[in-house]
Amino acid sequence: MPSMKKAKFKQPKMRQKRAKKEEEPQINSDSEDEMDTEGHKKSLEKLKTIDPDFYNFLEENDENLLNFEADSDDDNSEKAEDDENEDQLHVPGAITGDSDESDFEDEKSKPVHGRITLKMVSQWQAELQSEGKIKLATLTTVIKVFNAAMLRATSDDGASKGEYKVEGSSIFNSVIQMCVLYLPAAIKKYLGTEQSGKDPKKCKHYVKIKGPLLAYLKDLLKLLSSVTSENILTVLLKHLHQMCVYVACFTSISKQALKKLISLWSNSEETVRVLAFLCILRITRNQQTALLDLVLKAMYLTYVKNCKFVSPSTWPGINFMRRSLVEMFALDLNVSYQHVFLYIRQLAIHLRNAIVVQKIENRQAVYNWQFVNSLHLWADLISATSNKPQLQPLCYPLVMVITNTIKLVPTHQYYPLRFHCVDILISLSKETNTFIPILPFLVEVLTSYDFNKKHTKVSMKPLDFSCVLRLAKSQLMENGFKDSVIERVYGLLLEYTANESHSIAFPDITLLAVIQIKQFLKSCSVSNYTKKMRQLLEKIEENSKFIEKERAKISFALSEDKMIAAWEASIRAKGTPLLAFFENWNKVNKIQKRKKVTKNDEIAGDLPVIKRPKIPETEEKVKKPENKGPLVLFPSDSEGEEDQFKLKEETEEPKPKKVKKKVNKKKVQKEILPELDVPDKEDVVKDFSVNDW
């Protein structure tokens, strides 16, 4: 160690300083010792001549006193040995202990083997960003460092047994940042796929980097599975999206990545879901023939698992999964046809069992959110691919499944499920431009239920059918149930008739519905319900007259399909009265739905209240003028009798007045007493005597 060498080199200087400091007192002490020994010898020789008996006694009993020269020699030798030992003592060098944050180390100190510093990270980062050729050694080193960082994050004790050691949070962050920001571009540059965008497997340098790249992707997936923070997940998923080209080169890594990404796609926060789906889409596109079947099956099963419970909070996630699944199935319609046919057939089998075997278990297999959301998914897929012929043969069986689902239990409790199915049919009819007889399912609600029946329970708000399939019997007795049913029937009738308003057969399509609406208006006595349905009836009749007027101008035969399609397209472009009314109504309806979701009405309801300070009682009381009239000393008996029949509150209030009156009486008595005539007496003057005591 350099610090040890410095300490040994400085040791003689320290000895010289000590010697200089101790030199003077040592000289004085040595001279005094020499004088004492000489005098002691002379005194002993005199003692030998003066008192030989005592000298002999000392020789026999205390030889050390006579042989003091040997003792002094021994002491001197011990001192010399101590000095030699002091010369041989090890003097410790400068303290070089590791701090808690080992990132910021002394530059002069020798680095521990394998420990990564910020200087090393910045050097590798500069090499990855260099304009020249990227060295393979740099890429492999960076991948090994990332492996060390991953081991530190995922291991139990936080230690890595590899070639490199990542210690300290700042170094860990800098390593991850270096790999996320600069490694994908460096790999592209090394392989030469920056601008060409060709398959990495076809590059000549791919064989050299294949092993390190596989290790890096494994570490990245391990890190992705161990992270729970949404912010870190978004960063890692963006990085994985850049590395998807290389993930597709390894089938085993692709399957592991897709398994993790599908779980994130179904259960995570919104941004994480979107990034996970983008990664799934990119990996599948790069390996479509091998992975598309597996991905479609896995994603559909996870969609069905996660749409079992529907609430306002889960609706956005379910809608996102449905739309993204539609995009995945649209990648290859020939492959998708087999899956869609199989799953629609499964739905039809469940429905057939419920119709044939009329048990609660079979009915519950159909009347649940998983079944309804599956219908919604396949309807959206067929609508999205209506311009392509592959999936259009499946439209008819899907419509039959939906209509028979409505007919399975056509009771009042399942009106919400009926409305959900009708909504699916309306969107399917609009997007595929096919006629589906939907009006009977809506008008049946008006004729089958007695809206004149009085409710037994009162609800302040109408029921929300958006997250409900079945209503309880207690909810059917509320007035909010009838309000919600009329509102929903009105909206669905208006939407369907507006979509068909340009059709040449519009007056004929709506004829039966118009007759049944008129019957409802005659039978229903609730003004709020009849007002809405009468408005709808007027708009339908107005549009029918408009179509009849335009239809009267036709010169071609009704058998000419192309001419009819061209005429309907011109009417749609021109616009119809019913469509214009629906667009205005739909704008207002969307605003109201947004208010319900954001609860703006509840927020606006809590208006600020101005709190005024309370006026103290002393200010409220007005000072009454004192009655300066003549005082009544003896009140009448009638006043006392009236006071007996008063309430406690009334009798307690005039108490202070009575006290005042008493005080006034005393004052009056004091004033009257001096006015009394007292007879004058002479003062008796006596001498003071002690005998009186």
From TrEMBL:
Residues 1-19 have a biased composition (Basic residues). GO terms for cellular component: Noc1p-Noc2p complex; Noc2p-Noc3p complex; nucleolus; nucleoplasm. Residues 615-627, 643-656 have a biased composition (Basic and acidic residues). Pfam families: Noc2. Keywords: Nucleus. SUPFAM superfamilies: ARM repeat. Residues 1-44, 61-107, 615-664 are annotated as: Disordered. Transmembrane segments: none annotated. It comes from the Eukaryota. GO terms for biological process: negative regulation of transcription by RNA polymerase II; ribosomal large subunit biogenesis. Residues 70-86 have a biased composition (Acidic residues). It is found in: Nucleus. This is Nucleolar complex protein 2 homolog. Belongs to the NOC2 family. The keyword Cytoplasm does not apply. Its main location: nucleus. GO terms for molecular function: histone binding; transcription corepressor activity.
